[in-house]
Amino acid sequence: MPTVSPAQLAHKWHVHLVVERGLSDHTISNYDRDLNRYVAWLEAAGINDLTTVTANHLESYVADLRRGSETTKPLAASSAARALVVARGLHKFGVAEGLLLADVSADVSPPAAGEKLPDTLSIDEVAALLDACPTDTATGLRDKALLETLYATGARVSEVLALALDDITASDGVVAVTGKGNKQRLVPIGSHAQEALNAYLIRARPSLATGKSHALFLNARGTALSRQSAWTVIKQAAQRAGLDKDISPHTLRHSFATHLLEGGADVRTVQELLGHASVTTTQIYTHITAESLREVWAGAHPRA
């Protein structure tokens, strides 16, 4: 499939809207604003070919619009939804012109009215949360290791709870995370998470294990820890730390990405660490070795 430039297709669609559909100047102006916003976002993400765009990219685009940046204000849900409509229109036009094989935007849902993005914790708030777990009990050591692993890897809570003992490679300082589509990625962990995991594995897990489960994180019955239990662990740690934000497992994932980017990490590396699957990130991964991932992580993560 030939390369499809976002800017060139956007211009072609603009001409179509003006000449063939005869939209008003006001409507065209609104379309152009959102078109230019989408094209600029793709360029900033290093995407210069619309054939490589996935639904994940569009979801990230909408999330970034809602979140805002240092130079742009966060958009209301209604404004972000309108911007998504325009992005969808561009992809639909590309399919109609025979330039795109499929409309990857079709299944991307607009943000609901009043929908809030997850809170991001500051580095000090994360430290307070991670230090709030008691380490004088087996479950306390487990909770400490769980929270450290969530923040150290930025993995989804389901991915962390699916970790088995064999997924931890202490000598290399990496965790083998299995994400969507059963795709595995190696994510570095730092000294804080390694220390917490070692303490849990040596001093706590043997007393929790019944010999029947290979899951890394166990409950008091010796079976794999559930999502509901992990949620409770985070809520209780937040209360002990005196944090009044609405904190969920995704808060740590969101904070992980934010802190890495603020620390100077490359956006594409962060996408790889997060496991955002797409053709683009897969191609990038072939050029990023595990060692370079560790170096970027160690230089940018506050708890490396």
From TrEMBL:
Pfam families: Phage_int_SAM_1, Phage_integrase. It comes from the Bacteria. Keywords: Cell cycle, Cell division, Chromosome partition, Cytoplasm, DNA integration, DNA recombination, DNA-binding. Residues 116-298 form the Tyr recombinase domain. Residues 4-95 form the Core-binding (CB) domain. It is found in: Cytoplasm. Its main location: cytoplasm. The active site is at residues 156, 180, 250, 253, 276, 285. The keyword DNA-binding applies. The keyword Signal does not apply. One of its GO terms (cellular component) is cytoplasm. SUPFAM superfamilies: DNA breaking-rejoining enzymes, lambda integrase-like, N-terminal domain. CDD domains: INT_XerDC_C. InterPro entries: CB (IPR044068), DNA_brk_join_enz (IPR011010), Integrase-like_cat_sf (IPR013762), Integrase_catalytic (IPR002104), Integrase_recombinase_N (IPR010998), Integrase_SAM-like_N (IPR004107), Recomb_XerD (IPR011932), Tyrosine_recombinase_XerC/XerD (IPR023009). GO terms for biological process: cell division; chromosome segregation; DNA transposition. GO terms for molecular function: DNA binding; tyrosine-based site-specific recombinase activity. Forms a cyclic heterotetrameric complex composed of two molecules of XerC and two molecules of XerD. Site-specific tyrosine recombinase, which acts by catalyzing the cutting and rejoining of the recombining DNA molecules. The XerC-XerD complex is essential to convert dimers of the bacterial chromosome into monomers to permit their segregation at cell division. It also contributes to the segregational stability of plasmids. Belongs to the 'phage' integrase family. XerD subfamily. This is Tyrosine recombinase XerD.
